[in-house]
Write a structure and sequence with these properties.
CATH topology: Growth Hormone, Chain: A
InterPro entries: MFS_dom, MFS_STP/MST-like_plant, MFS_sugar_transport-like, MFS_trans_sf, STP/PLT_plant, Sugar/inositol_transpt, Sugar_transporter_CS
Family: Belongs to the major facilitator superfamily. Sugar transporter (TC 2.A.1.1) family.
Number of helices: 16
GO molecular function: monosaccharide transmembrane transporter activity; symporter activity
Largest sheet: 2 strands, antiparallel
Subcellular location: Membrane
Strand content: under 5%
Strand order of the largest sheet: 1-2
Number of strands: 2
Number of domains: 1
CATH superfamily: MFS general substrate transporter like domains
Order of helices and strands: HHHHHHHHHHHHHHHHEE
Keywords: Membrane, Sugar transport, Symport, Transmembrane, Transmembrane helix, Transport
Radius of gyration: 24 Å
Length: 353
């Protein structure tokens, strides 16, 4: 659950930006957009200044051979003097990481085929849910379906608030209900909502894009189902798209696999953002059906190919792959004679799994 704090921070940032945009839009003279655009400088400045005063971590000190300084830093962080066991774990982890050679080459080995597949497809599917269409262009989208400027910005605030609230639900339930359940439930929820929104917009707009007088109740229904869709994403593919990859990559390939995971995510975030407006003009309500199709595909993929990772240590994941109906053909017992280097209790060094 703690891992989802990363996604929670993203959703809170999106909500704050939406709220600021709503109030900046009320500034007379039409120059509020300059504050919205220039406001991005504030968190960038905080990050820049923070990086200058950010202290070294004990782990980074150990990597550079500053063991005594690292132990003193660890004592200061924990607030206790008895940190010997944790310190030995850190030292042993550092020693184990130095034994790893050619992580990119390792990732291409047959026994890591399931890991490579997940590193590519999970972030790919995460972006093809269409969530960034809502998050990036919510005011444009709501304006297109008949909302006034203030109403469209307020709708973006509402969806942002739903995003934060549903992420908190994921933090509560991810270790209670499991990853697969949230993936599948969120997928079904998003699929139904996208189909309903497409039907509502299609029935009102048709293909000419003219809704006439849009009844208030009609607009409320559209916003309601978009919010339900956002909630489905925020407690499933949103946080789990980052959480699950971090739980399945062993030490030998972790750096390479995580790099691919993040790169694919950013690549398709950029691609979807670039083509959205063109797709909206050409597909109109069909845009939601386009993303609904991928939600269906990704839900089928999770059902058949993604094993449950709840409560399973990374060093035990190779056993999960070996017993999976499909991935077992790539991962065999002979693949791990010395594999899965992880920490043993008390920092006694890497252990075999």
């Amino acid at each position: 659950a703690l891992n989802i704090g990363f996604q929670l921070s993203i959703t809170v940032g999106i909500l704050i930006a939406n709220v600021l945009n709503y109030f900046f839009n009320k500034i007379d003279g039409g120059w509020g957009w300059r504050l919205s655009l220039g406001g991005a400088m504030v968190p960038a400045l905080i990050i820049t200044v923070g990086s200058l005063i950010l202290p070294d971590t004990p782990n980074s000190m150990i990597e550079r051979g500053q063991t005594e300084e690292a132990k003193a830093k660890l004592k200061r962080i924990r607030g206790v003097d008895d940190v010997d066991e944790e310190f030995r774990d850190l030292v042993a982890a550092s020693d184990a990481s130095k034994l790893v050679e050619h992580p990119w080459g390792n990732l291409l080995q047959r026994k890591y085929r399931p890991h490579l597949t997940m590193a590519i497809l999970i972030p790919f599917f995460q972006q093809l849910t269409g969530i960034n269409v809502i998050m990036f262009y919510a005011p444009v989208l709501f304006n297109t379906i008949g909302f006034e400027d203030d109403a469209s910005l307020m709708s973006a605030v509402i969806t942002g608030a739903v995003n934060v609230g549903a992420t908190l639900v994921s933090i509560y339930g991810v270790d209670k209900w499991g990853r697969r359940f949230l993936f599948l439930e969120g997928g079904v929820q998003m699929l139904i909502c996208q189909a309903i929104v497409a039907a509502c917009i299609g029935a009102r707009f048709g293909t000419n894009g003219d809704p006439g007088d849009l009844p208030k109740w009609y607009a409320v229904v559209v916003v309601l189902f978009i919010c339900i869709y956002v909630a489905g994403f925020a407690w499933s593919w949103g946080p789990l798209g980052w959480l699950v990859p971090s739980e399945i990559f062993p030490l030998e390939i972790r750096s390479a696999a995580q790099s691919i995971n993040v790169s694919v995510n950013m690549l398709f975030t950029f691609a979807v953002a670039q083509v959205f407006l063109t797709m909206l003009c050409h597909l109109k309500f069909g845009l939601f059906l386009f993303f609904a199709f991928f939600v269906l595909i990704m839900s089928i993929f999770v059902y058949f190919f993604l094993p449950e990772t709840k409560g399973i240590p990374i060093e035990e994941m190779n056993r999960v792959w070996r017993t999976h109906w499909y991935w077992s053909r790539f991962v065999e017992d002979l693949d791990y004679p010395n594999g899965g280097m992880e920490m043993s209790k008390g920092g006694q060094g890497p252990k075999n799994v």
